[in-house]
Amino acid sequence: MFEVREKPEMVEKAMLVGFCFDKSEEEETGLLLTELEELVETLGIGIVGMELVRVRDRHRGLICGTGKADELAELARNRGCDCIVFDNELSPMQQRNWEELTDMTVLDREEVILDIFAKRARTKEARLQVSLARMQYALPRMARMWGHLDREGGGGGSGGGGGASRGMGEQQIEIDRRLARKRISKLKTELETVRMQRSTQRKERKSNNVATAAIVGYTNAGKSTLLNKLAGSDIMEADMLFATLDPTTRRLELDDGQDLLLSDTVGFVRNLPHRLVESFKATLEEAVLADFLIHVLDASSDEIIDHYNTTCKVLAELGADDKRAIIVLNKVDKVESEATLLGLRAEFPGAYESSAITGLGLEELSLKFTDFLVDRVKKLSYRVPQSRGDITGLLHREGKVLQTGYEGNDVILEVIVPKNIEGQVKEFLQK
Q: What is the pTM of this model?
């Protein structure tokens, strides 16, 4: 059992519960409960207790047996809780059973994350993704909203339609489900339109031969701060979970003159609900389609290894686990001991140490980007007759002209040239 922590003047109070089914799972369940605490507090809900419960056999109705369920319900009432939040995924039936047992609001990890996402979404794409995920989550749970009306109304009595008559709630559930399915279909259509627009944007980037990199990592690892520092942008950054949901892309000019498009992505957490991975594929596609990944880790976190493994697992689900990746140990300025730092270096050999806040290591990181893309372009010098405006136009359009000069009737250009046009301009190469 975790220690009860009373917090004064809380509007809403919650008790957190995590079930484990084997003694070997207790440590992992405890870590997940601690993470759940951060998630719930992000919603402004106070935590009055955390319970890690060992269960021998998984019960269909309540996960645990009725005796343990009654004990947890009484504990929540004695602590003055308004709700109970389970780290385990609850089926609609289990959620309903717990609410009937406790007469309290009952949430699971997925619903908490959905509520956070709903608060954070800003762009049309993110709002559509959140709405779709929430509607898919709510559809099988609509009986929770109407079941009490049937009980109060007596269900199918002998009058009117006799034993075959339906309660108001049962009729309304069918209507609500039909409307929900239509809404889900509409959201999917709208989201597909947004994805097509993003696909068009990506094709334009590809036709311009601009390299792309996706910043990935556990939530609150400092991805947005890193993007801001590298690209000189001002996207939202905060010391909170899921501060960034919307895909954000910024242009960075590398030392060799070529451009790199850096994209931020939503942060990962352990046990990220599968429907969220599905709903947020449009956002996470940046990782799938990028030329390489920048995997950001919070070097000051005691759970850095678990965070690394979680991110790798989600990337594997997306089919992006075979991408070249640069590992960045961010927040090294917060690492308290040299021994810890030495351990991280041994665990992640070749990783780049940085602090997005102080700027430490960012110059070296930018040079690594150039190394990763060295095979994409060449820096060459061309002598082009002024009468060949088609060639100078091609070099300006497809390459990056660093310097322009004139000698007689010729234009001398120093250009970062992508390989796809190198053959078209080779006759004008400066000897």
A: 0.71
